[in-house]
Structures are given as C-alpha cells and as structure tokens.
Amino acid sequence: MKLLIQKRQSQSALFNLMTPLLCLVLALIVVALFLVMAGVNPFAAYRDVGIEALGSAYGLSETLVQATPLIFTGLGVMLAFRMQLWNIGAEGQLYMGALGATWVALFSGITSTWLMIPMMMIMAMILGGIWAAIAGALKARYRVNEVIITLLLNYIAAGIVKYLVYGGWRDPKGYGFPQTADFPPNAILSTYFDTRLHSGFWISLVLAAILWVFTEKTVWGYELRVIGNNPRAAQYAGMNIQSKTIFVMFLSGALAALAGFAQVSGVVTRLQDNISPGYGFTAVIVAWLARRSAAGVVIVSFFFGIVYVGGDALKITYKLPESFINVFQGMLLFFLLASEYFVNHRITLVREPKTPVAV
Amino acid sequence: MIDLIETIFDTTIRAGTPILFGTLGAIICERSGVINLGVEGLMLIGALAGFAVTSMTGSFTAGVLAAIFFTMIAGMLHALITVYLKGNQIVSGLALAMLGVGVSALFGRSFVGKGLDGLSRIEIPLLSKIPIFGAMFRQDILVYLSVILVVLIALFFSRTRWGLYLRTVGENPGAADTSGIPVTRYRFWAVALGAGISGIGGAYMSLAYTPFWVENMTAGRGWIAVSLVIFSMWSAPRALFGAYLFGGINAAQLQLQAHGTSVSPYLLTMLPYLFTIGVLIWSTRRLEKGASNEPASLGLPYDREDRK
Amino acid sequence: MSESFLRLEGITKTFPGVKALDDVSLDVRPGEILTLLGENGAGKSTLMSVLSGLYAPDSGRILLDGKPVQLASPADALSKGIGMVHQHFMLVPNHSVLDNILLAIDNLTFKLDRAALKTRVAAIVSDLGLDLNLDTPVWKLSIGQQQWIEIIKLLVRDTRLLILDEPTAVLTPQEANKLFDFLKKLRAKGSSIIFISHKMREVMELSNRVTVLKKGRSVATVTAGDYDTSKLARLMIGEDEVPTWSKVSHAQPNVLVSVHGIEANNERGTRELDDFYLDIYAGEVLGVAGVAGNGQKALGEVLAGLRKPINGNIRLRSVDVTKDWGNGKHFSIIGHVPEDRKAQGIAPDLTVDENLVLKSYKAPEFCNFIFQKNKAIRDNAKVQVERYDIKAGPSGAKVRVLSGGNIQKVIIARELGIKPELLIALYPTRGLDIGAAGFVHSVIAKAGETGMGTLLISEDLDELLKVSDRIAVMFRGKLVGIVDPTKTTREQIGLMMAGEAPV
Q1: Is the pLDDT of residue A95 over 50?
Q2: Of B57, B97, C201, C394, which one has the fewest beta carbons inside 10 Å?
Q3: What is the mean pLDDT of residues C310-314?
Q4: What's the rounded Cα separation, in Å, for the pair C366 and C377?
C-alpha cells in the first residue's frame, strides 16, 4: 500500500465551498481544546457567542458594527493582494485615518455640516493613503519588503496617536483620560434606533460595490489582474508596475483609513488610543478568505463581525483576554492553508501489485 | 561619565539579546528557503513558557527548555504547512504570529502581575574588570549562550556538511534533491530548530530582561528580528552587530527618558521602529547592488514534480 | 554485445492533462551509448527523470541486475549508480565550484576538510584537461563550463550509468566534439551512457543503439549499422503530416531598424551587449545564431524596448529613436515573442480571451477609456482562435491549461494581431513538436509580405538555415559577422559561434 499524490486538474465547486466550512469546524474544535485547557467550558462559550452575536436584533446590529471596519480594511488589503502586494499595515493606516478625521473634526475650524463628514473622510484617506504609499514607494523604488515596512509602520502610527492623545490633543476637561474632546455633533455619523449601528456601514457597502466594478469591469482592473498574476508579463505588455504599486498601496491605505474614520466618527466619537482591537490584522484573513473579491470581503467581514462580538462576550463572561480571538484566527488560517493542499491534490491509497522477481 | 557609558553598554547588550536570538532563529529558517514571519508569535510563546515553567518549578533551565520545546512545536506547525503542504509562507507566518499572541495571552492570564528574580549575572574574572567593555562579561548565562550560538551557527554554515547541505536547500532545492539531500526533512528541521532559538529570545525577555509576564510583552521585537535578518545578510555575526545596534538605540532612548528630556516618551519608543525601517531600506539597497546573500529560493515551496 | 543490466518495463506517467509516458520499455547494456531519440514532447526527459528518481511513475517497474528496484528519489538512483545531467542544470549559482562538487560526494565528514577535498577535486579537474578555478561562484562561469561541473559531479561518484539530457544544446560544435571524445573514452572504460538528443548528426556519430520515442511511446530500438538518418527521421516523426512550404524572401532594400554601438548590462551589472551593430531590413527574416548566454536575450529585450541600453543608439528608418524606444512609444509597432513563453508571455490565470488583448487592451477597439469592451474582446478571441487553429478549450478557459504549442500560438496570434512592423522572436519553436514548429515558421515567413522585419533568435541551426534570409552570429555580446544561409556551412557558423571572425 502506498499513498499516491496527484495534482488535480480542476476543483469541484462544491469542494471549494465545503472546504472553508470544514476548516471553520476544525478551528473551532482546536480552539475548544484550548478553552478546556484554560478552564472554560467550550460548549457554553460557543453558545454564548451565538446568542450574543446573532440571537437578538441588538446583537445583530453589534455584529454589523464590528463588520464595518473589517469591510473597509478588508477591501484595502484585498486591493493590494490583487497586485501581489502584502499590506499588513491596515492597522496603522486605520489609526492614521482616525487621526486625520479627528483633526478635521476638532482642529480644522470647519463648521459647515455639509463639508464636515466629507472632509473628515478625505483627510483620513489622505493620511492613511500616504502611510501605505510609503511602503509602496519603497517597494517600487528599492524593492524593500512591504510586509515588514507596513508592519513596522503600525507601531509608529500607534505611537503617534498615543503621543497626541496623551499630549497636545488630550481633552483638558477629560479628567486626565488619554482621549480627545468629544466631536461636535456634525462630525458624528448618524446611528439607527437604539443601536451603535451607524451610517459608516452603508458607506462601506457602497465602496465595496464601487471596488467590485473597478476591479472586474475596467481597464484598470484588468491591468491589476495581469500584474497580480504575472508581473513579468505585465512589464512585457508595457504596464508601468512601479507607479501602479505606489498608487494601489495608496488606495489600499486610504480604504483602510476609512475604518479609522468610521470608528472615531461613528462609534467612539473621539480619538483615543484603543479604537481598534486589531481589525487591520484580521483584514488580512478577511482578504485571504475572500479570494480577492469585493463581495467576498463583505461576506467574510460579517462572519468576523460575529467573531468579534463573540470575543467581547467571552471577555466579559469568562474573563478571557481580548487577544484570545487571535488563537481562533491563527488556527483558522492554518487549516485553510492546509486545506488548499488537499483541494489541489488528489490523494489516493493504492494497493501495489506484487512484483514478481524477474528471473 | 564612565558609569553612564557602562550602563548604556550594559543595556545595549541586554536589549539586543532577545532580538539576537530572534534573528538567529530566523536566519536558520530562511537559510533553508522558508520565510518565517511568525517570530513575534514564537517569542511570545517562548516568553510565556519560560516564565510559567520557571515560576512553577523554580528552575531557569526548565524554563528555557520549556520555551524551546513549545516554540519548536509551534515552528513545526509552520513547517508542516509550508514545507510539506506547500502553503503560502507569508500567510502561514502571519497565522503563527497571531496564534502566538493569542495563545500566550490565553494561558498567561494567571501569571499576569507575578514577578521573578531575574537570571543572575555571572562575572567572568579579570575580563569583567575592563572599563566599559567589562559590561560584556558581567552578563547572565543566556547572553553568553547567544554569543556562543553566533559562533556555532557561523561555523555550522561554513565548515560542516550539514551546513553546506542546508545552504544548498535554500539556494536551489532542485540541485539539493538531485544530489540526494532530503530537501523537505532539512527544511522541516531548520524551521523547527530556528523556531526554538527564536523562542529563547522570548524566554530571555521574561526571565532576564524584564522578569515578569505581561500580554504582548515582546512589543514588536519579533518583527524587528525579521527585519534584521535582511540587514545581517543571513549571516550570524552580522546579526550580532545588528541586534546590538538596535539595543544601543533602545538603551539611548531609555537613558533619555530616565534623564527627563522634554521629548515625549511616546515619540522615543518609536525610535527603534524608525531605525529598523531605515536599516531595512539601507540593507535592501545593498542587496540590490549585487552583494546578494539572499537564499535564492527563499519563499518558494519545493515540489519535485513541478514541471518548469 | 553483453546482456543488459538495467531494464525499464511498462513505464507510464501522467501529468495533469497529459499522458507523458505510455507503457514505455527500455534496456541498457554495460559499456554502450544508448541514444534516446525523439521530438520535443516525446517524453525523453520525463522517462529519464523517472529513471533518475525525480518523478515517480504511475505504473511500470525498473529492474537493475535482474532485481526490481524502487527509485523513490534521486538519492536512491545515485546510490545505485544512476546519475543524470539535467537540461536545466542542478547547480547552485551562488556556491563556489568546489561547494557544488562537494554536494556529489557521499561520504563527507561532518566537519568539512576543505583543503583535502579541494586537492581531490582539483585532480579530477586537471585529469579532464579543464581550466577551472574552484573558488569561483558558479554563476560567473559559461554554460559550457557549468555543464562540465555537472559531469564532474557524476564522476566523483561511482556512476555506472550517466544520463545526459540534450547536452549539446548549449555548446558550440567544437565544445560538443570535446564532450563526445570524453564520452567515448568513458564508454571504453565500461560505463554506460544514455544520451538524449534530437540531432541526427550526433546520434549517428555516438550511438551503439538508438531507442526512438514518439508521443510518450517507444516505437523502436535499433542497433548501429541497421539504420541511417532517414530511417531514424521516419521513426521519429512517423507518418505525421509535416507542413511543407517553400521559402520566399520578402526582403526589401530599405533598412527598417538599426542598432549602433549598443551596450547593455544585465541585472547583475555584467556586460551583455558590447558595441553591437545590426541592421534589420524591412520584410526580411534576420536570424541570430549564438551559444545561449552570449547576449541574445539582451538584444531581444533592448529591441523590444524592455531594457534601456547604456550606450549607443537605435534608429527607426534612419531616425534616432533611442530616447523614446524604452518608454513604450513604439510599443504598438513591435511584436515580441519572448524567450520564456510561460513566465513572460502570458498571464496564466487569465482567460485566453484576456491574454489575446494583453498588448492591445488600451486600443479604442477594446475599451472606452475606463471600461473594457467585453464583447469586442470575446469576438477578437473567436477570430484569432480560428485563424491560428488554437485548441483553447471551452470559452473562458484559463491559458495555463493549454499545451505549450497552443500557448505559443496565443502569443503569436496576439503579437501579429497588432500588425507590427518589427517582430522579435526568441526561440519561438523551442519545445514545440515538428508540426507546430512548421506552423510557426510559415506564419513568420508569411508576415514578411507586409514589410514586417523579423529578428529570429534561435539556438537551432537547422531552423535558422531554413527560415532566415540572413544569419547574424553573436559571441560575448558582439556581432561576429553576418552570413548568407545559402552560401555557408554549419562548420562556418560553428566557428563564428566560438568567436572566430569569418575569413
């Protein structure tokens, strides 16, 4: 008996759909084992997650609140993915976006209700875009590894925000808390009913639709696909990879920065140093799972919205650390990576014929 | 004045050592052709395992061994995915980083706020009396171990059969394979062993540098280690230089804070990251100018039956 | 002749979508040179990769000295005395010559005694009459020298059977002769050699026996004396239609493009083109001969506008266009069939339709500034697929699933589709079977009717002699000379390929 491993010519659609679900189940099982080791009853924990995130209208709205920044950052990372660029710095771009939006809201002197929100968005996109374009430019000009640069820039962005909220931007009437003053009402996104769901959610959906059209229907999207699939062929076809690298990174960062805008303008209504529990990192998984599709980003973000709401619930009920959901995310990624091998290879057990010894 | 310089030099070494372990581990891994972006996660696992086991058993040796053991297990996960299942090395590394952050936070809950008496220093007679540089010889056992490892790794790659084979696997796995070198086995163990060494860096953090446990205590040092691999051009002695350079920046930054400059501490803590970015740009440009030591097959999975 | 010591029986190997080997059998006798003859794609390399342990066969067995053996890895094969020099060398470019050779020594001690090993290897090198510095990194060596290192790697082991996969493809005729002398000596000492080739002259000169492969099957094994060139050719090609066409020259008297004193470097900063001059006339097919790695690639890239020369100028109909050439202004008049069609010529995961507009996607035909005209792109594909007889599979199929010949047709259809004035074709028939190669030749020759000049870079002298109006020979980045294919000999070109100026 031996294992015969062959590459598959094509994968069935059903297989492609079932594998991520199977990975999800496996990840949940492994995390359950970890929970048991940490002294938590996994069944109770998972039940609580389901109830918290999906069991009520309010829970559902909370899931959408968590999904919103994931859609923005996920779209950003996905766009860079399309060109084989790894933007692991969505977290830092989110913070830079929040910083830009906050500056407009509190210090720009804009008072017009009509101008306020658009200017906050634009400023966020500019700052976040530049933040990512730094890595893009270094990659294009000197081929510096963008993974590491975007990642290191996260720490610097977080440092700048800390510097401001502990320093010059701290609310003098805020009892010393490291946070800015509250935004004026015209700088706050409207919320619905009695939930925290805000209009940033709709903005993220509209952006996803626009991005879908751009990536699938336009000349520009075609160029991105060619570059992403085979940069040498793109160069050979006369495409300017360098300038596109910088531009795509700028857009990628600008999209991620809108998550920061949505957080400060829709949820927190001021700037503080903990506006994101790691949305920018989860965005990498979102983009990876979405298979580079804008629609996929929306769907996967909703799923991770559940994970975040669930994680919050576990944090409160079981005193689990906030970064606990990283365990789940890491395991899910591992299983997904492993599953690709089995999707692409056919593994069969064959009985070897007894080879007669030649005379 | 001499005292101040000695203090800075001492901090330089101590701040550089965790990074040095992290970088050395990553060098072994990358020399085999596998990128490991998960060093941050490995160092966290190492930090927690070291701290937890030491505080439970009272033995530093047990703590360090536990750190090596658990990070090797985590490294094997990365190796399994990338070497045997040919998964994307970047994504797998990120998964490892996330897993490390999450797992160490989850199991570290009960250790938060506890302290340890840090590893004691061992004075080497005579040498430790040298002004300034004497600081080098008043360190704990792990610092000495890190320097010994630098020498051993350098010798391993240049003077031994396994070192030659491992370099070949990273440069051209096809050539290694046709010469009868088991590519996947070499890669698997290089990743696992590299992970274990990176893990010691984490243990150094929680056992000696700041002997207590807090969530996310490595604060990006794993990522700095990954960047320093490029700076070091995949060579162990240069990694020592890079890590101490980083340590020096850190020491200077801490001294500035201690002596109450008007600059915000939040800006000062950014310095090492800025420095690392600068170093990365500088060393990549050098690479581009042809002085390349980068393993030629870095990041590429090897499948014998892939047709060119 | 003594009995065979190695038998392959009923070997079958399938790659996704292709049955590369179908029930192939083969035997090897001690002290013989067995030639494996067959067209590109007949399965020669695949069969030898099975024998050297690189590929696992789906079925069939291998008998060594009468006993079935498992060759699960190259290490297995090597330990049983079977070694192979692959067409793509298995060398480590960044390692020194010595380190590369050390990889082949089995019983290395844990601590390497470099000095002793160096003496040992140096002895072998001087025995072979080679001039090699053992400390040089391999990437600095010529392809011919690199091949010798591969051979030395097999000599330091006890190799009973040496497999050489088209070793002469990268050699000048003179270098090839040196190799043949060596192989004959080796045979005299009792070693066996399997020699893969599709060049008749070599086969006639060397072989004791010839096994002919065709489309993954072994069609015949013949012994020296029982065959002549035409019999072998018939066996190799079979009764397949070979498209015939008689060459008509469309060359015009006016110069289309000329390069003057061009100098260009590669990525590593090594000089690739050195004070290079060439005129390409409208309508002609200008062949470029040379051993691989003598600057052909750089010439193709400079002319295609993909690499900026550091010196010299390019003229289009006597107008100096050097400055604009590299920034895409002339892209629409240059067709380019790249050297590595899969790595450079296509975006493999995009559809055939999308790949067919890779050069013209910005043309008003296919887009209106922002949006692509999907219908026009589909219609264009329909036309091209039919005109060039591309077996493209169902509509919407990815290019990566096409065979090499069909991928090449996609590229040629696209490049000629922009109606270029200059066509640069690098090794356009490499790896294609005779039918597809003939098709490519006739298409290129016919396109000359419109006045399109063609630069045909190839390592296949027969192809160049057949298709070109003139043949330019390159050596170390310089032009050695230009010959008329009707008035020259292979030997003459061979000498020029080694750098000797024509008399």
Answers
A1: yes
A2: C394
A3: 90
A4: 6
Q: Is residue A151 part of a domain?
A: yes
Contact between A341 and B87 using a beta-carbon 8 Å cutoff: yes
Please name the residue of chain B whose CA is at the shortest distance from the CA of residue C269.
B290
**Cβ–Cβ < 8 Å for B295, B168:** no
Specify the number of domains making up chain A. 1
- The 10s digit of each residue's pLDDT in C86-124 is 888 889 988 999 999 999 887 788 888 888 999 989 998
Query: Distance between CA atoms of A293 and B285, rounded to whole angstroms?
Result: 34
Asked if A251 and A90 touch (Cβ cutoff 8 Å), the reply is: no
Chain C residue closest in CA terms to A355: C68
Say yes or no: A222 contacts chain C, CB-CB below 8 A: yes
Scanning the structure block, which residue is given the tokens 């260009």? C264
Do A323 and B109 make contact, defined as CB atoms within 8 angstroms? no
- Whether residue A340 lies inside any domain: the answer is no
Range of the domain at B293: 2-306
Name the minimum distance, in Å, from the CA of B177 to any CA of chain C: 6
- Could you give the CA distance from residue B203 to residue B44 in angstroms, rounded to a whole number? 8
Cα(B280)–Cα(A281) distance, integer angstroms: 22
Under an 8 Å CB criterion, which residues of B touch C? 159-162, 164-165, 167-168, 171-172, 174-182, 290, 292-293, 296, 304-305, 307-308
Helix pair angle (A279-289, B89-108), 10° resolution: 140
In Å, how far are A55, C54, C283, C360, C447 from C451, measured between CA atoms?
Answer: 74, 48, 4, 21, 8
Inter-chain residue contact C103 with B164, CB threshold 8 Å? yes
State which H helix or E strand residue C289 sits in. Answer: strand C285-289
Cross-chain Cβ contact A236/C338 below 8 Å: yes
Measured between beta carbons, which residues in chain A are less than 8 angstroms from residue B80? 338
Instruction: State the pLDDT at residue A13.
Output: 72
* pLDDT > 70 fraction of chain B, expressed in percent and rounded: 97
Q: What is the pLDDT at residue A357?
A: 39
Cα–Cα distance for residue pair C376/C365, rounded to 1 Å: 7
**Which of A6, A31, A40, A151 would best serve as a mutation to test chain B binding (most B beta carbons within 10 A)?**
A151
Contact C90 B161 (CB under 8 A): no
The CATH number assigned to the domain holding A130 equals 1.10.3470
Number of domains in chain B: 1
Distance from CA of A186 to the nearest CA of B (A): 31
pLDDT at C245 over 70: no
Domain that holds residue A289: 41-319
- Distance (Å, rounded) from C-alpha A314 to C-alpha C493? 79
Q: What is the pLDDT of residues A286-336, one digit of tens each?
A: 998 888 889 999 999 999 999 999 888 888 888 888 888 899 999 999 999
- Please give the biggest Cα pair distance in chain A: 98
φ, ψ for residue A292, nearest 5 deg: 60, 20
Q: How far apart are CA C156 and CA C477, in angstroms?
A: 35
Chains adjacent to B (≥3 CB pairs closer than 8 angstroms): A, C
Q: Name the minimum distance, in Å, from the CA of B187 to any CA of chain C.
A: 17
Say if A358 falls within a structural domain.
Answer: no
pLDDT grade for A356, boundaries at 50, 70 and 90: very low
For residues B151 and C381, what is the distance between their CA atoms, to the nearest angstrom? 62
CA distance C331 to chain A (A): 7
- Its ipTM equals 0.89
Q: Which residue of C92, C153, C269 is in closest CB contact with B290?
A: C269
Highest mean pLDDT among B192-196, B267-271, C178-182: B192-196
Whether A341 maps to a domain, the answer reads no
Asked if C108 reaches chain B (Cβ–Cβ under 8 Å), the answer is yes
Q: Which of A109-113, A250-254, C384-388 has the highest average model confidence (pLDDT)?
A: A250-254
Expressed in percent and rounded to 5, the helix, strand and coil fractions of chain C are 35, 25, 40
